[in-house]
Amino acid sequence: MAQGDRAFVAATQGPAIIPFLYLGAKHMVTGYDHILFLIGVVMFLYRLRDVVLYVSMFTIGHSLTLMLGVLFHTGANSHVVDAIIGLSVVYKGAENLGLLSRIGWTLDKRLAVFAFGLCHGLGLATKLLDLAISPDGLVINLISFNVGVELGQILVLVFVVSLLNLWRRRPDFAATAMTANWALIGCGALIFLHQTWEYSTT
């Protein structure tokens, strides 16, 4: 989170609905790790109802741990959480490539998305707790932040799904999608290694 945003959260006393809506949306739109995971989730979803189902599972997961984590002051080391988020990106890329099924590892895709949603939400909760958010107006501000995250997620999904629909019309989609998922695995692995290194040195 930007230094100015950190200072604002630390100084805020009482309800601040619009600013926290903005912060939540900004965090999602600029959160490349969350965006990479969402790209992996929707890449091979062709029906709107499937997109809504999987995104809803992710939303329920991260909303639960975000709200409960902040309200009950249950956070975790941010580097550990971010490393797990990196692994979630690796998982989606590997699943999309069929690598997991080849080794006999079969998980319910919806439950997996929900579980990683819990991890992503814990990451959000940890970051908010690190900012020493005031208890004055906490519930309203927390709900506003969460709604902002969802609005930001919708903006990201509209953009991503629109690009995917254009990409799928190309005859080379199958081949380039394979490359894209290997890229997801690579990006997720880099996030994991970077956060693991940061954890080991702090």
Provide structural commentary.
This protein has 202 residues and is an all-alpha fold. The chain has one domain (3-200). Helices cover 80% and strands 0% of the residues. The longest helix is centred in the last third of the chain and has 31 residues, at 138-168. It is globular, with a radius of gyration of 17 Å.
For this entry, what is the oligomeric state of its chains?
A: single chain
SSE sequence, one letter per element: HHHHHHHHH
Structural class by secondary-structure content: mainly alpha
Radius of gyration: 17 Å
**Strand element count:** 0
Number of domains: 1
Number of helices: 9
The description of the largest β-sheet is: none
Residue share in helices? over 70%
Span between termini: 19 Å
Average pLDDT confidence is 86
- Poorly predicted runs of 5 or more residues: none
Q: Estimate what percentage of residues fall within beta strands.
A: under 5%
Give the overall shape: globular
